[in-house]
Amino acid sequence: MTFSSCICRPALSRFTRLGALSVSRPFSASASSQLARITLVGRLAATPELQGTSTGSEIVRYAVGHDTGPADRRTTTWFKVVAFDQTKPPRLMQLEKGTLVYLEGEPNLHKYQTDDGNPHHKFNIVQRSLIVLRNPTHPAGEGAAATEAEHSAE
């Protein structure tokens, strides 16, 4: 019996019994969704929109703009975000255009073909958490309790 078989096999069998080891990812015991995360600070492009799905559930769609570069050459990258907010009414619907937010989510690339057969790709961020950093109607430093109340559930 070698040293590696004494150490690795019991550890491997323990992870397998716990169900933490995935066949497709043999060197990690973490969930795959934890590896593909996007963290973004930016401003809402518009008021979020509530949309119904074909299954009858509701989703909230919005866009967040992230600025990069020096002030004289600043560029904005826009990210489309989808949220499955289960509160009634959705708290996201109360946010206004220009609200500064901290967003954590997972990337989602949807591949599809149009009716004429052309392939297309659609990139979205699926929101996991959202924190309001600054609301455009409240000056900075004002309304800390209001900001805390606008957290989105994870």
What does this structure look like?
With 154 residues, the protein is mainly β. Helices cover 14% and strands 40% of the residues. The chain contains 2 helices and 6 strands; from the N terminus they run αββββββα. Strands 1-3-4-6-5 form a 5-stranded mixed barrel. β3 (58-68) and β4 form a beta hairpin. The N and C termini lie far apart (47 Å).
Q: Supply Rg.
A: 21 Å
Summing up helix and strand content along with how strands pair, one would put the structural category as mainly beta
Assign an overall shape: globular
**SSE arrangement, N to C:** HEEEEEEH
Sequence stretches where pLDDT stays below 50 over 5 or more residues: 1-28, 141-154
* Continuous helix count: 2
Largest sheet entry = 5 strands, mixed, barrel
The pLDDT mean sits at 75
Number of strands: 6
The side-by-side strand order for the widest beta sheet comes to 1-3-4-6-5
- Portion of residues in beta strands equals 35-45%
Helix content: 10-25%
The rounded distance between the terminal residues' Cα atoms is 47 Å
